[in-house]
């Protein structure tokens, strides 16, 4: 048939920003964010992101400008994953564990126009900006301090503050049109273990597809209550910064990944899901008796990085955490291989189950190809 | 940042064909298809599709040629959803309930090069071909008969037979490269209730995205056992022709959607999921005592079309079927709105739950926009 019509002329671009619009329409009154005594619902989160995006525009942020942020897993960090691209800009979430020199290197390489700094990291940020200006001869970026939302400290660095930008913004802001789904949405840097940090750009399309793939790979149902133990600066929290909106879930934000914060938030908010590096499993297991709480419904934990040893897996399952293991890297939008559990494995002895869990066999649905020995294809713009 | 790299130059196209490749790699030994006494695993299904695709190429099928099929939910129908596009062609699955004249109209409009006919529909197909040649002055398409795989009848029409094409094909066939994800994968026709049937083209990209969205919207986990009660010719079985491969599940094929076939297959193969028009719910409820079986684990049923009345929903839940209601249309790759259940509704009285179930409120994740009053946007090439 020669005259088959071709779709795509007026196509709607793939972008995770639609997850927020949809959440604010479909799950308006569901809790979107919990942080200490703070609660937002999805309508409010959408409105706060519109306000922040419009404020960024009035600060002269234009398409493809980079906005950097140095912050723990506080609500502002989550909101910026939507608000920054809603302003047409690219979010650069910086690893808070880097030293001032590496932070400076990232600010230089990314040519950050605005630098959002959580009040706890002002000292490190100040040093980084000094290095940026003196060693690298770069101009100082515009600085915005993120004060604590639950217990404001009043600590400032420069004149701008996050809540003030949200307050001043336009709640009716209409987001910058995305005319190309391959446009960048975030810029992340590898941890730089072998050389200087390396920049990795995610597109709107890649972020959209990886988000759906990870929800599918992990079999995350609707209305998850997700605990933010994995840093959001780590591959955008393995895409769950966007994924919880896609599922109409609740983001439980915590400032510190301590045993006490983890246990008390799980018990208080009935957490269903969390992601973690293997070290977090140790933190949980080494909790002091007064920090522990009884976990009544198993928490689904997606563990990345090196495979956790079988004895550790066995112990953590016994205190109420159901582990799924994943492997990935910054260049592949985070986890690219997930150990999809097979029902027949339930009949195996426990040691064998733990051995199988420590593998991470299956490429996620949108990964084009992977070679576990060489990783030659894993960095491809597969999605 | 002006020098942000742009992804997409060497992009991997989105196509549901990758679900089959992935299934044959990742779930090689899992059962892919059950039909009466026939069993295939995903490795075999992949091989059979490669064979059929290569045979189609040797029958001079080239890119964008249309291959039509008139068949019930037998294994061949499922395999063709992969094999036909693997040959670069476009699958046109024809509603078996249409009369010969409407079948002829579709063969004419689609310019079908090959016409696959299940042995049960040879009479209707013969009449349609007569109309095609006499009334429409079109040449006769190449005909392939699909004999029953479990109990071959030997009934033929022309020289070609489905299993013979599979047998003769090359198991090492490398699929036609998809250079554009907007290329057509299937061509379906609306039922033509108000006028002549209307053709709707799905792209590889649209099929891929709709498949993932429906898995997500329905919260279908891995390893589903899916009963083919919904005709595959109906919007490609609401994309589950591809979706069961994506989930590493099992397709339970049945020739007739009778109470006996439904009940016995559910009991025998531990069916977890099925899609259905509301009429199928009536078929189940009106089963004679000797046709019924005890359903021990609830079967998830996605029901489309007009909202089922609340008393019907209540009855069907009581015999072991858990209903989720969806609404869509051929122009929107099948279901576009799914009634996503909210946990808080579990606490409501049963009548109220049934009322909520009969709604179909939420756009699926890849639907760009929808206006329930006007449907003005629903036909867009959203994905």
From TrEMBL, chains A, B:
Assigned keywords, A-Z: Ligase, Phenylpropanoid metabolism
GO MF terms, alphabetically ordered: ligase activity
Domain AMP-dependent synthetase/ligase stretches: 22-361
Protein's pathway: Phytoalexin biosynthesis; 3,4',5-trihydroxystilbene biosynthesis; 3,4',5-trihydroxystilbene from trans-4-coumarate: step 1/2
Ligase in keyword set: yes
Coiled-coil regions listed in the entry: none
Single GO BP term: phenylpropanoid metabolic process
A Pfam family recorded for this sequence: AMP-binding
Listed InterPro entries: AMP-binding_CS (IPR020845), AMP-dep_synth/lig_dom (IPR000873), ANL_N_sf (IPR042099)
Domain of life of the organism encoding this protein: Eukaryota
Family label: Belongs to the ATP-dependent AMP-binding enzyme family.
Name of the molecule in the record: Acyl:coa ligase acetate-coa synthetase
Organism annotation: Solanum tuberosum
